[in-house]
């Protein structure tokens, strides 16, 4: 596998390699980004490749407590399996590792697998991470190379990292949009609640009008029959009187 050969040599920034018995599962170690809450920390995790890789993105799982991502859970990133629509087949495991490092200082904003804790707790976890060990790989702090500097970032990788930074800057706006949408839904529900009494009043008024019309029609019918009966009685009386006088 070409990527296994390219990532075989560890750098001071990251290292990654597949398991001996499973090329679809990789273990990786990354250095905490400098000038952040994670500076000085070393973080270990798993990368699970789908059979369709590189056409589909990998899943990333952190194993070392870090304060940014939940451990033993697939995390939600634009380069992970949660967002196949943003993944590019030209990206690689190295791209995923660079993105993970870039994502660490960004706010979680409630995404799947994210955490929001204080700066002090993250710094404590960064110190504790130096003694963390993987059952498969051993002590993770020894996996990174102190002699090999990190490789230069390609233009495509830089574009990807800039996109990540842009999304991080835009995240509050997204939250505002969600809140605005929620407020709009609540307002619509309130309008529906407020309109219910008015609808009931209109229905009651309609019922009154219909009842009045029915009563009016009933009264008209009674008057018609009364006139008809009176006319018939008058006709009968006239006929009787006429017969009497003729006789």
TrEMBL record:
<keyword id="KW-0812">Transmembrane</keyword>
<keyword id="KW-1133">Transmembrane helix</keyword>
<dbReference type="Pfam" id="PF00179">
    <property type="entry name" value="UQ_con"/>
</dbReference>
<dbReference type="InterPro" id="IPR016135">
    <property type="entry name" value="UBQ-conjugating_enzyme/RWD"/>
</dbReference>
<feature type="region of interest" description="Disordered">
    <location>
        <begin position="170"/>
        <end position="204"/>
    </location>
</feature>
<dbReference type="InterPro" id="IPR050113">
    <property type="entry name" value="Ub_conjugating_enzyme"/>
</dbReference>
<feature type="compositionally biased region" description="Polar residues">
    <location>
        <begin position="171"/>
        <end position="185"/>
    </location>
</feature>
<feature type="domain" description="UBC core">
    <location>
        <begin position="1"/>
        <end position="143"/>
    </location>
</feature>
<protein>
    <submittedName>
        <fullName>Ubiquitin-conjugating enzyme E2 J1</fullName>
    </submittedName>
</protein>
<keyword id="KW-0472">Membrane</keyword>
<dbReference type="InterPro" id="IPR000608">
    <property type="entry name" value="UBC"/>
</dbReference>
<feature type="transmembrane region" description="Helical">
    <location>
        <begin position="223"/>
        <end position="241"/>
    </location>
</feature>
């Amino acid at each position: 596998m070409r990527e296994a050969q390219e990532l075989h040599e560890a750098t001071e920034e990251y290292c990654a390699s597949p398991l001996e018995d499973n090329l679809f599962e990789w273990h990786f170690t990354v250095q905490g980004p400098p000038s952040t809450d994670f500076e000085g920390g070393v973080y270990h995790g798993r990368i699970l490749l789908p059979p369709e890789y590189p056409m589909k993105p990998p899943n990333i799982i952190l194993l070392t407590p870090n304060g940014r991502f939940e451990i033993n859970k697939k995390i939600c990133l634009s380069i992970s399996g949660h967002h196949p629509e943003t993944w590019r087949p030209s990206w690689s495991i190295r791209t995923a590792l660079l993105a993970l490092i870039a994502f660490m200082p960004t706010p979680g904003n409630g995404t799947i697998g994210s955490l929001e804790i204080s700066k002090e707790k993250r710094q404590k976890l960064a110190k504790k991470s130096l003694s963390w060990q993987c059952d498969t790989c051993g002590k993770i702090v020894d996996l990174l190379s102190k002699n090999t500097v990190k490789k230069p970032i390609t233009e495509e990788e830089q574009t990807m990292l800039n996109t990540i930074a842009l999304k991080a800057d835009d995240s509050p706006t997204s939250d505002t949009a969600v809140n605005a949408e929620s407020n709009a839904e609540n307002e619509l529900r309130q309008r529906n609640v407020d309109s219910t009494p008015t609808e009931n009043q209109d229905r009651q008024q309609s019922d009154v009008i219909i009842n009045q019309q029915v009563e009016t029609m009933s009264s008209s019918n009674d008057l018609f029959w009364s006139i008809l009966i009176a006319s018939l009685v008058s006709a009968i009386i006239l006929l009787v009187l006429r017969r009497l006088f003729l006789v």
